[in-house]
Amino acid sequence: MSRFKVVVTRNIGPDALGIIRACNDIDMVLWNHDERPEREWVLRNAQGAHGFLVLMSDKVNDELLDAAGPQLRVVSTMSVGFEHCDLRALAKRDLLLGHTPDVLTDAVADIGVMLALMASRNAGQGHKIVLDGQWPKMVWAPFTLCGPQISTLSGAGRRTVGFVGFGRIAQATLKRLVPFGFQSCLYAGSKRQNQDANRERDVELGSQLGIVIERVDLEEVAKASDVVFLLCPGGEETHHLVSESFLRKMKRTAVLVNVSRGTVVDSNALAKALKEEWIWGAGLDVVEGEPDIGQDHPLVKEPRAVVIPHMGSGTHETRTEMAKLAAMNVVNGIYGRPLLAGVDVKRYVD
Amino acid sequence: MSRFKVVVTRNIGPDALGIIRACNDIDMVLWNHDERPEREWVLRNAQGAHGFLVLMSDKVNDELLDAAGPQLRVVSTMSVGFEHCDLRALAKRDLLLGHTPDVLTDAVADIGVMLALMASRNAGQGHKIVLDGQWPKMVWAPFTLCGPQISTLSGAGRRTVGFVGFGRIAQATLKRLVPFGFQSCLYAGSKRQNQDANRERDVELGSQLGIVIERVDLEEVAKASDVVFLLCPGGEETHHLVSESFLRKMKRTAVLVNVSRGTVVDSNALAKALKEEWIWGAGLDVVEGEPDIGQDHPLVKEPRAVVIPHMGSGTHETRTEMAKLAAMNVVNGIYGRPLLAGVDVKRYVD
């Protein structure tokens, strides 16, 4: 019986590792730490591997694939995004690429709602006041630290939520927002989507949730929304979609939430929009150039921006599911079975 | 025509002040600032007043009421709570007391949900990492900064929310939580409530929301809940209801949210519970002894506690409604009309 070798570049937890360990003909080389391994360790251990289980901070390129050798079958990343993987390099070797979509839908939708509330309610400033020991000196006045209200007050008019990108996470976010009093949902989607199928889905979802869902131009999302959620993929197509021009069209009381990719937002334009009060606030799980976002970054310095360090999928439950899915992907790939969640690599390189 | 005098101790915004200004026979003495006035200013201007519009930081006691004189008819506070008012002093003079309940229901429910998410998702720690410029040095590992998930993952079992106190704000909070996947709601209520009427309401609300609502002992709320919201009144009856014994009964993955009164929680017991990991986290809009909560307070030092400086009702919309209601209460009291929201002072002193 031939044996297989898999390289796992991080401690991905007992549940996921158990899936690989249960395969008697797979030898696992495990970097059993939280910190990523040196590149040299990865390249050395790559030799003879049939599968890799990697994270976003591991570069998957010609160098690594060459180091492994021609027996390599599959690369499985414990992430939804695969910007760290050279798709051309994978495609020309006919390699499979697995990733972990869908399982993080709820965790990301949760953090989106949290950031919308934090941004509108000045929770970043409030939290900082307490951390800095300033609460005792704070003047309590009728409008101290007030922000716009996400939920509707009875009789206080309609609330509209806008989405840039309207996939599973956006829909899960919308579902959570309905009882806050949102009656209308606008979204701008990719031109590549099937518009007729989407229209049917929108009518069905809208009637299920008791609200109106409408696909509109990006400009209309900016103009009409009380909260705008960015939930589109990264990459060139969406680079700096949220620009000075987008931000100038937004309501002065609106908040922007980015839980997708930092590159979707022009950080300097957003910092300016907050400083000059074109919009009310921003809640950001991602920032372009992360993790190199220091104290002097214009958005970190901006009191109306709440920035957290890319924690969108960070729950025990979700990360465990992601790790298990990544483990099943690498095992299936090694055994020549279809991946549970694979990236159609060739589609991207043609 | 006789004229009336009203003293307003803070800038409560144009909408509310407009209500008083519209009354031609009322002279308003206004402390038109955010900072509270010196006591001496209040006492001096009290003389001859028929009504007061005050905030929580203004003490309403014999001294003030004597300074006003026997023509005084009404005290209106722009707050729900009235711990700053000596009810006995009001009762013996047959004075009316107005407050501002209900209008802040949605704003407080919003912040409760926000704090539950922040506490479970380590948002306080994440926010601090970014503020401190530590994001670039952060190690991204599969379980970095992970917390328990508020929402249910498909197939990941049930979620139970617990409330201590189950009035309007708790019910508004529950409504918001349903789409996160909560299937069960437990609450502990005051023994003084009409149990039969509540049982009917619970069945109706539960079937409307598609979940099970059950009144149980305080102990059961502690034991069975994934999130516990404190939404009961302050005062002696609820003093340190959340004690070491309560906290020891909670789940290790549970979070505690206090948006009611700081006195409901024993702060030292909670700090110990967080440090020793009896529970996962806490989201606190209120802390006993506030606003004198400095950097050395055990809960401020505790990374698993998110503390914000009493911002529960802090939205423009809600504070404006509170101010308008307070203005209408003082006007109605002066004119001898029933208050829109009055405290039954005599009930409390008998």
From TrEMBL, chains A, B:
Full protein name: Glyoxylate reductase
Which residues does the UniProt record annotate as the domain D-isomer specific 2-hydroxyacid dehydrogenase NAD-binding? Answer: 113-312
The protein's UniProt keywords, in alphabetical order, are: Oxidoreductase
Q: Which GO terms describe its molecular function?
A: glyoxylate reductase (NADPH) activity; hydroxypyruvate reductase [NAD(P)H] activity; NAD binding
One term under GO cellular component: cytosol
Q: Which InterPro entries match?
A: D-isomer_2-hydroxyacid_DH, D-isomer_2_OHA_DH_cat_dom, D-isomer_DH_CS, D-isomer_DH_NAD-bd, NAD(P)-bd_dom_sf
Ranges of residues in domain D-isomer specific 2-hydroxyacid dehydrogenase catalytic? 6-339
Highest taxon of the source? Answer: Eukaryota
Q: Which Pfam families match?
A: 2-Hacid_dh, 2-Hacid_dh_C
Looking at the keywords, is Transferase present?
no
Protein family: Belongs to the D-isomer specific 2-hydroxyacid dehydrogenase family.
